[in-house]
Write a structure and sequence with these properties.
The protein is mainly alpha-helical and 262 residues long. The protein has eleven helices and four strands. The strands form two sheets. A two-stranded parallel sheet has the order 1-2. Strands 3-4 form a two-stranded antiparallel ribbon.
């Protein structure tokens, strides 16, 4: 695979995360105003809910609407659970991406070193010149907090006993924190890390050329047993698959070059 394919996968994760956030925000646009204590609307002035929701919509420049069923809207907090789940999914995606970038940038000599991360600090306190993946590590810590917040929200939402959920404060507090943490971490991650990533071309070409896995492309032409013979000899001698194939004359040079072209 190419770095472009790898990073394309990351990009798609981010795109899907944005889609999930928009879908969750749509569910949150339903307000339980006008249901009074338990959803019956007892003693609520006529037109109160519509007027207040219209004012809130104008003040926030967002489109809110009245709940379809006040008994569901006040006894449960499923929309908030859904939104928190979307935040958790985004957090999981970002943790996977940040961890991958940290591993791909490890080295430069004793790790993978396939990419270079921006140097945001002068180095570590004990290893001069070392580039710490500080933003990757920050993102993973944010993700851990968001996952924890989601667990607390799920527990709080189960406490909608009968017609009223009194755990709204912890739900609201954790959901707002998750949103703020993810928004800030995403912006910093993109602006201070991702845009400055470079490909270590020589390193990646070396990895591909020395990989025994390139033999997979030769299987239809030389068969499994012959490919295994080449792999064992390449591993034993420390040479590349290409070098061993040429020595053993398993294929004409032109055909070999075409099949081993990454």
């Amino acid at each position: 695979m190419t770095l472009g394919q790898e990073f394309g996968g990351y990009a798609r994760q981010v795109e899907r995360g944005v889609e999930r956030a928009h879908a969750a925000s749509e569910a949150l646009a339903e307000l339980a105003l006008g249901g009074t204590a338990v959803g019956t609307g007892l003693n609520c002035p006529p037109g109160f809910a519509k007027e207040v929701i219209d004012r809130v919509s104008r003040r926030t420049d967002l489109v809110f609407r009245r709940a379809d069923d006040h008994f569901e809207a006040q006894g449960a907090r499923d929309a908030a659970v859904e939104a928190s789940g979307a935040m958790r999914t985004i957090a999981v995606s970002l943790m996977k991406i940040a961890n991958d970038l940290r591993l791909l940038g490890s080295g430069p000599r004793c790790g993978l070193g396939e990419i270079s991360l921006p140097a945001l600090q002068p180095g570590s306190s004990t290893m001069p010149g070392k580039v710490n993946p500080v933003l990757c590590e920050s993102v993973t810590q944010v993700a851990a907090q968001v996952i924890g917040n989601d667990a607390a929200i799920a527990v709080a939402a189960t406490h909608g006993h009968l017609e009223l959920n009194t755990f709204l404060p912890v739900i609201a507090r954790n959901l707002l924190e998750s949103i703020c943490l993810l928004a800030n971490a995403s912006a910093l991650f993109a602006g201070r890390c991702v845009v400055g990533i470079g490909a270590s071309r020589d390193r990646t070409v070396e990895f591909v050329e020395r990989s025994l896995a390139t033999l997979t492309a030769l299987l239809p032409s030389i068969g499994y047993d012959r490919a295994a013979e080449v792999a064992k000899e390449a591993h034993r001698s420390g040479r590349t698959v290409r070098e061993v194939c040429i020595e053993l004359r398993v294929l004409p040079t032109e055909g070999l070059d075409a099949l081993l072209d990454p």
